[in-house]
Protein: Cytochrome b5 heme-binding domain-containing protein
Amino acid sequence: MSSNLKQFTREEVAKHNKPDDLWIIVDANVYDLTRFKAMHPGGLAALVDPEVAGQDATDVFYSLHRTEVLERPQYKRLIVGRIQGEESVFTAREPGDLSKVPYGEPTWLADGYYSPYYTEASSPFLKLRQFVDEYIYPDAQAREEDGKRPDQKVLDKMAELELHAMRMGPGKHLQGRKLMNGLVKPEEFDYFHELIITQELSRCGARGYGDGLLGGKVIGLPPVLNFGSEELKKKVVPEVLAGKKFICLAISEAQAGSDVMGLQTTAVKSEDGKEWIINGSKKWITNGTFADYFTVGCKTEDGFTAILVERGEGVETRQIKTSYSSTAGTAFITFDNVRVPVGNTLGEEGGGIFVILSNFNHERWVMCCASARSQRSIIEECLKWASQRKAFGKPLTSQAVIRSKLAAMIARAESVQNWLENVTYQMCNMSYKQQASKLAGQIAFLKSYSTACGQETARDAVQIFGGRGITKTGMGRFIEHYHRTIPFDSLLGGAEDVLSDLGVRQALRGMPSNARL
Ligand code: HEM
Structure:
């Protein structure tokens, strides 16, 4: 494009400085705004200002607009030429590009840094960056606008790479699958690969959409995979891992959340003993509005039992309006005399607690992966904004208070990522049973620490962005989104305080009886 552009000198551009003949320079490109000026969302006055009309408006432009504004075709068309002998400096990133912004990538991806954890086998996963940029990011942004569930085409594309299967972690369910078009052998796939997948998906910048992308499966399918009958698995697992059907985990209720034993949904056997009859309701169920299957925690004669319910007669789902988008399909669900074959029992009757608890570690660890990556994206936004925004004639970075907030954010994100990688390394080397006993406390701490860090970073980011940090469009849109949705992270999978307490209780249980000061 650059070679075909007409070349102008700055003096030539300066002659076009009237409302009926209005040019400006942004990043070496010459824009004719004569007809656009009346439609400019920032108003006419900003453009006809003598400091702007006919002048180089690069600095003022970038202190008010995101680069992506100039990428929109309707604005690209306003370019009439290029300043002689100059090139554009601020290029939009290409799909798959790594960030060059310091701390914009974890060290294993940052130029010139090393990692003890990532090997050659991890590198194919970089291809995922391009996939996310090309397919997931645009759908995430569009669905964030219209609130609809993720496009089936995106889910199908993810299935082609076996992303749905890989998000369940290493295990038998990967056997015979061509992961990332064969780049990684199923037996080589480990938790670091899964960490990368979760972190790359979180880069879509839309919290609710991330959950809409079969988030319910990550927590709802493991009980079927690990505790379902062969017949049940044969029916459910292939269609869920192909992205064709949604499953969700339905545990919390209006009257009981963290208090799993206080749940009131009941399942009683039919007279012939062949069916469960389920009655009750569930609340805040991710993906519930569009789920085909529900892994439901029920009170039964013997205690608490996990049962798989298929959408059908007596199952009603209703959207809950949460502080994030309806893309996640967060539902209130009612079960009204729902009849389910007894073969749908997951694990032992009365053994539901074990079934549900056995997945908590993995679920919380996934949340930590996402949290660490989202914090990093916020740092990148803040570093860019603070560098390009001028206040009192100087970039925001010249203010010590801004630098101090950036320092705290970076320290938080790096500590979360480094702790996370250490825990991930332990997971790769421990059996599932060892993980359950040795890592439950560590992961609970890490989860509550990550989300506490995320909340502080969100608050600092809003202070750095000012009013834009609470504005849904424009420069601060990702900050507004993050700040609005971050409390959710601190609740799901166990509220912050509950998890910290769990971590301490686990530690106390491990205290040697002969330990004395
Ligand atoms: C190629 C030239 C320009 C284009 C295509 C353009 C386009 C836009 C768009 C799309 C918005 C809406 C905000 C958003 O969604 O990000 C906007 C806002 C704005 N623009 Fe421009 N603009 C241009 C140049 C300028 C210049 C040179 C100024 C100089 C002061 C300016 C001042 C503003 C202001 C003050 C706002 C409101 C910002 C806010 O609400 O925070 N624009 N512009």
Q: What stands out?
A: The two ends are 74 Å apart (CA to CA). Residues 24, 26, 31, 33, 40-42, 46-47, 52, 57, 60-61, 64-66, 69, 75, 78, 473-474 surround protoporphyrin IX containing FE (CB under 6 Å). The mean pLDDT is 94.
